[in-house]
Amino acid sequence: MNVEIFTDGASRGNPGPGGYGTILKYIDPQGVTHQKELSQGFRCTTNNRMELLAVIVGFEALKRPCTVDLYSDSKYVVDAFNQHWVDGWLKRNWKNAKKEPVKNIDLWQRLLKAKEPHTVTFHWVKGHAGHPENERCDELATTAADGSHLLEDEGFVQ
Fold first, then answer.
1. Segments forming the whole domain that contains residue 118
2. Is the dihedral of CA 62, 47, 154, 150 positive or negative?
């Protein structure tokens, strides 16, 4: 199965209330497009955590191994894979090039586990530049961040 995943994260303040938006898109053999939208808001988090969570929930929504084209406006997420930062972090036991602990380890580990069964290509898209799915993900993320049913980001530490 070939699936496209579009993601965005947002926070009102950094840290502050935040949310993510994710769209999964699949075209079946008959040419019919299937689309699913996911979003959630959190009381206190960061933009980078929401960018990561948007990707994670997209992968976790897949029920079988897929070929995935993932589109994000987050250089933090896309470059971590395309520039092989993650490989270095793993070799250095979750330390960055400055030998400091990598931020958001809980989400990076969850992301690696969720991504594992899939063949993934990461694509960076310019945010707020009229890309329809990216604009919709931004709308989902900001609406979730501004919502009244906000969850605790259990892994966030100030």
1. 2-145
2. negative
